[in-house]
TrEMBL record:
It comes from the Bacteria. The lineage of its organism: Bacteria, Bacillati, Bacillota, Clostridia, Eubacteriales. This is DUF3854 domain-containing protein. It comes from Desulfofundulus salinus.
């Protein structure tokens, strides 16, 4: 019981022919961690039987020290992380990926409610995480189109039931928001999750131990259909930037969060901006962390010789909601 208490959630690693099950001696089906073997065949001597989610019964056996070489098994189980591909490559794959998907009516409704028009929704390329087609099937179609998914954040490898690996991605319901660079290329995808309990927004990224890779924290550049304001606005969140951009008639750069403002700077410089307006959420007045991020961003922009303003409005938390509600947004020099 001592060991159970010490390692309450250590994951089981599946056995393979070179690292067989220490209980039944076979190289498949069973698994172990550093102190328990989960054998699918031998019940004798087990301290516990557990019914797995697929209905099969696994027999848990305590392991004696030295019975297994877990680090060696884990080493073999790990699929090398890929180097993130250049933005040109990511853009090509993501464009074709989004073309294979569609936008669910409930997500279109959500975007309309946020203040975008049908035309803007189509133009910006939002798509739902597929609900019926399996991720591996979508991946297979991309590979058939000639794409290599190694180095494309969000995609990773799963192990097949009979050995080997296949490409897949996470399928938690939600919709994809393209994160574009200053040239309009899709450099990453953010997801608006249907179930916001683990966070409303999540990047399509990671799973480095499964051949996946990270997209970092890139800033999104939202370009409205018509630009009337030559100042560059800065807000938190790609979708917020898309919405604010349309109402303002200005290019809006969306940092992934208030704190990840650093990638905004090279974008602002590449766009050749002379004047920037910071439109962080209104909680910058009460949330010290957001307040600090705002001050740091402001100082960095000034260091590069930009004229800096701050957007001010009443009531709503975010500038997108304020603009969509028809409220007046003023800019004060800071
Ligand atoms: Zn076994």
């Amino acid at each position: 019981m001592q060991a159970e208490h010490r390692y309450p959630e250590e994951k089981f690693v599946r056995v393979n022919p070179s690292h067989p099950c220490p209980i039944c001696g076979r190289g498949d089906w069973c698994g172990y961690n550093s102190f328990i073997a989960s054998c699918m065949r031998v019940s004798e001597g087990a301290f516990k039987e557990v019914i797995l989610s697929n209905g099969q019964v696994a027999y848990l056996h305590w392991l004696e020290p030295g019975m297994v070489n877990l680090p060696a098994l884990m080493e073999e189980d790990t699929i090398t992380a890929a180097q993130t591909a250049p933005v040109e490559v990511r853009d090509r794959v993501y464009r074709d990926f989004l073309k294979l998907l569609y936008l669910h009516p409930r997500h279109r409704k959500d975007l309309l409610r946020r203040g975008l028009t049908e035309w803007e929704i189509r133009r910006n390329g939002y798509r739902s995480v597929p609900g019926t087609e399996a991720p591996w099937s979508v991946c297979r179609r991309l590979i058939r189109m000639g794409h290599d998914l190694a180095g494309i954040p969000g995609f990773y490898k799963a192990r097949g039931p009979h050995g080997g690996t296949y490409w897949t991605f996470d399928r938690q319901p939600g919709y994809f928001i393209p994160v574009r660079d200053e040239k309009g290329r899709i450099q990453a995808l953010q997801r608006r999750m249907d179930d916001a309990r683990g966070g409303k927004y999540k990047l399509f990224s990671g799973h480095k131990s499964r051949g996946g890779c990270s997209c970092g924290t890139p800033a999104h550049v939202a370009r409205p259909a018509k630009t009337e304001d030559r100042r560059i606005w800065i807000t938190e969140g790609p979708l917020k930037a898309d919405i604010a951009g349309e109402y303002l008639g200005a290019v809006v750069v969306g940092a992934l969060s208030a704190a990840t403002w650093r990638p905004v700077i090279p974008v602002i410089l590449a766009l050749g901006a002379k004047e920037a307006v910071i439109a962080y959420d209104r909680d910058l007045e009460t949330n010290p962390e957001v307040g600090r991020a705002y001050e740091a961003l402001k100082a960095e922009l000034k260091k590069h010789g930009l004229v800096v303003g701050r957007a001010v409005w009443n009531g709503k938390k975010g500038i997108d909601d304020a603009l969509a509600a028809g409220m007046e947004v003023r800019v004060v020099r800071v």
